[in-house]
Amino acid sequence: MDQLTPLINAENLRQYLARHFPGEDAPLEFEHISGGHSNETFFVRRGMREWVLRRPPRGPLLPTAHDVLREYRILHALNTIDLPVPRVLLACDDPDVIGASFYLMERVPGIVIHQELPSYGADPAGRRAISRALIDGLVALHQVDWQAVGLGNLSKHDGYLQRQLRRWIDQLERSRQRTIPELALITAWLMERLPTSGPTTIVHGDYRIGNVIYALEEPRVAAIVDWEMATLGDPLADVGILLASWREPSDPPSQIVSQLSPLTAEEGFFTRAEVAAYYAELTGQPVRDLAFYRVLALWKLAILLEGSYARFTAGTTDDPFFATLEQGVPQLVQQTWQICREAL
Fold this sequence. Notes:
single chain, five-stranded antiparallel sheet, two-stranded antiparallel sheet, 11 helices, 9 strands, 41% helix
């Protein structure tokens, strides 16, 4: 339990949960699932009950980053419709409880595909079904009536791409630790090629295979998770994120992207072109300027991870992944600039 002290005050949380979920007041057990460059995620067990807890990482944090209460609000709204997302249970804005704001949600049974495939992904046909299910989930999200579910004031309704560039340029300046020349070139490339966005939808902001939970017995998305970057905007931004994280057999090695979805390079998974084509087929919407959206996603990822590297060098996180960012972020930036050059 001691290793959780900087992130969770276990005794305070036990008392808090005893008040909000009466019943068996047993000691809590924790399993740290993920954290560092994203919000921290824990399984919390009390006797026969189990929850998922999300809280921000340790600071210093960039402004507007890691707002778990905003994430809770989005999920709470989406719980009112038939969309595969976890059911949220409570939110706490009192930092005296565990040391930061947090929220609890149900634990969804299933599998997150990262290094291993479920049994139904053992052959190419199964891997194609996994690909289709992931895109089906994205299309279902983009078809949500965001005004009807009460998310109309989540963000502005237009100018998404312009706002993204302004926000992330500001984030870059705040987190900059070193000079990576290609970052400035990519920024200029994006500003010169801003496309016209289609109709506004909910944008997940980090939609990829590692951020969904698949059902245990069939190729179906049981839950879309990790909503900290969700907003209203251009749906093709999510397509760009999916493509940016999608590995193909001929892709060069990458310390960063190779870790996001390494298994999609296996036989049977869609190619990036097939991902885009299937999305276009389901939505009936044109899918264009894909190089821009893919580069935008990789550029944002590089800035996000450079901020994580800043926290690592400041000693506020000891995640071993961050040690790879000294070389990993410059490599990611250089490979992204190569995509820009090939798109000219």
